[in-house]
Amino acid sequence: MSSQTTPNDNQALPMLIRAFAGEATPRTPIWYMRQAGRYLPEYNELRRGRSFLELSETVELAVEVSLQPFRRFAVDGIIMFSDILTPLKGAGIPLHFEEKKGPVLDQTVADESEMHHLREDFDPGVDTAHVADILKTLRAHIDALPAGTERPALLGFAGAPFTLASYLVEGGTSKKFEKTKGAVFGASEFFHSLSDRLTEHMIRYLKMQIDAGADAVQIFDSWAGILSPADYAEFAAPYTQRIVAALQEYTPRPVILFVGNSAHLLKEMIAQQPRVLSLDWRVQAPAVEREMEAAGALNKMAVQGNMDPLTLYGTPERVRSAASRVLENFAGFAGRGGYVFNLGHGIHPSSPIPNVQTMLDTVRSFPVK
Amino acid sequence: MSSQTTPNDNQALPMLIRAFAGEATPRTPIWYMRQAGRYLPEYNELRRGRSFLELSETVELAVEVSLQPFRRFAVDGIIMFSDILTPLKGAGIPLHFEEKKGPVLDQTVADESEMHHLREDFDPGVDTAHVADILKTLRAHIDALPAGTERPALLGFAGAPFTLASYLVEGGTSKKFEKTKGAVFGASEFFHSLSDRLTEHMIRYLKMQIDAGADAVQIFDSWAGILSPADYAEFAAPYTQRIVAALQEYTPRPVILFVGNSAHLLKEMIAQQPRVLSLDWRVQAPAVEREMEAAGALNKMAVQGNMDPLTLYGTPERVRSAASRVLENFAGFAGRGGYVFNLGHGIHPSSPIPNVQTMLDTVRSFPVK
């Protein structure tokens, strides 16, 4: 049993949290990014006739959506249904979501003259009060599960400053990130100021989530993989590192660091000492071991990942073999640094449910030492 | 002097080719991907009122465009102006280019039933006769340069089977490659058949380019970096490896292998034994050295790369420091395995000419041992 305590420390810690702490668990825990989403018919049912914003900002609807994958699959983690851009909206940036395009920011922060649009005095308890309420409601729901039920962990999250800054500069998602890198390389001072403000916002935002009952929080640096290692070390890592440090000073609950497309950034990610590294499908276990060893972090840091989410578009045999391969590759981390099964990126909208079930079955029947 | 011979072996081999062969050169040679393109005013002048297809299929126009970066910057390599999809059009796939969207294939090859649309009997000398003519004209132009002129190398190229197959399956460019991976993981046999046919096509296509006078040819596997190492080894590497082997049996002229976003694929790329590895900006020199050493390829394989092309959107100081960093990182390859400066991906359309000049000046003034 871990020495960590939570407000519910009279109960056993969730299996997911025990695995993150490097404890041996009876089987490999599993949750997966974007598990509450469009591949679920019950999600589409609730989404019908509603905007994404209505769904994510209405506490009872967001709670229901968050619970859907737990109800259907009994996943080991429940992640709050929200978007990484939610706190930007709370800090003064108007935005909406378009069906095929994704998020569209109605106000960019593309240079120094636009900095004031992102309010400095962002107060997460007020400006994103619904997020606190979603987490508290989910907390209460989990705590009220009948005794003997395997308790899922409650997960909060936030976007990393680099990724959030890229949305603010581009005004939405991007394919080539020309404006982002234009700002990074051409207006470095502005980009650092913006990242600094976002860092302070995200520290407050994640502390609020811990206070509202999250068992762990994940930082999503979805786009930082577009940077070379040297540029990542200059423009992205210092900010996520500050968030990790501030959170881990605030709470013993684990902080998970996810960087998309980051096979080349392992050393720089490990140096930030998050409790858990969340890895995309490009990363191989031996490289993780080598870099952790070099940093003195082996057997002290957990990993989460890393099946290619698009494997779920394949045959059942392909799903089984891909999940087994991931489990075998990372078996050495289970009960040592810690290992939790996940996808390498969010699940895609057309993933067939039977394939998702096959993935879950493969993970659950995988023998642990 | 190299022991390689070319049809012009009475003249000295171009500096670029000598660097690819691992010979010491008086300075670091440079060319860069998409060097003939929209960042050049003289390109836009010629492009005005013409479709991309007209520009690339009219021999005299394509020759003129190919020469533009040489005339302006005296780059060390002239790459023929063409598109990786050109041979697909030659093999029966109608396509056109849209201004913002890029290439659109009017006929996909998304499953077995559509395989026949990609003709098996592709004959590059007939079906892409204009490509042979572009190369022959460029060859004659280079050979006719006044004595004493530093002779640029003539470069041909082809898309890799995985990347071409992704265009055929998706019907164009993609952001998430859902259809491609759906085919890879869900219809593996079809995907292998398609890749096999494309491999035969590209071997013929590149041999034709060698015959037409190319000093070196580059294989572009722009999208294979979306695959995990195991999936790359199963679905992409066997095909580029066949092309490399067939070409290197056919000619001593170097084959360059470029895989986009490939920091996680170095081992698998090196195992294919191309003469030159072309690296994107995520890759670090020590990782390349380690993997080459492990494969017994160190000092036998050249590298090309790898400045982030979007650095060119930055300040002149940033361009200088980024180019210097790349030169310093790869200095150990010069005069041993071989090193040629390049970008990590194609130059972007809004790159300011003065920054391009700064990059060239930085490379040319960098002291070599």
Summarize the model shown.
Helix content of chain A is 44%, strand content 12%.
What's the helix and strand layout?
The structure is a homodimer of 369-residue chains.
Chain A (H helix, E strand, L loop, with lengths): L14 H6 L20 H7 L4 H6 L1 H15 L3 E3 L6 H5 L4 E4 L3 E4 L18 H4 L1 H15 L9 E7 L1 H10 L7 H9 L1 H24 L4 E6 L7 H7 L1 H14 L4 E5 L6 H5 L5 E3 L6 H10 L7 E6 L8 H14 L9 E5 L9 H12 L5
General description of the model:
The structure is a homodimer of 369-residue chains. The two termini of chain A are 17 Å apart. Residues 1-10 of chain A have low confidence and may be disordered. With 369 residues, chain A is an alpha/beta fold. Chain A is globular and about 55 Å long. In chain A, helix 9 packs across helix 10 (188-211). In chain A, 44% of the residues lie in helices and 12% in strands. In chain A, the strands form two sheets. In chain A, strands 1-4-5-6-7-8-9 form a seven-stranded parallel β-sheet. Chain A has one domain (15-365): TIM Barrel. Chain A contains 16 helices and nine strands. In chain A, helix 14 links the parallel strand 7 (276-278) and strand 8. Chains A and B meet through helix 9, helix 11 and helix 15 of A and helix 9, helix 11 and helix 15 of B.
Please report the first level of CATH classification, the CATH class of chain A.
Answer: Alpha Beta
Which stretches of chain A are low in confidence, meaning pLDDT under 50 for 5 or more residues running? Answer: 1-10
Oligomer kind: homodimer
Mean pLDDT over all positions of chain A: 95
Please state the CA-atom Rg of chain A, rounded to the nearest Å: 19 Å
Number of strands of chain A: 9
CA distance, first residue to last residue of chain A: 17 Å
CATH architecture of chain A: Alpha-Beta Barrel
Given helix and strand content, the structural type of chain A is: alpha/beta
SSE series of chain A: HHHHEHEEHHEHHHEHHEHEHEHEH
Strand content of chain A: 5-15%
Could you estimate the helical fraction of the residues of chain A in percent? 40-55%
Strand sequence of the main sheet of chain A, in spatial order?
1-4-5-6-7-8-9
CATH topology of chain A: TIM Barrel
Shape, per Cα inertia axes of chain A: globular
Largest sheet of chain A: 7 strands, parallel
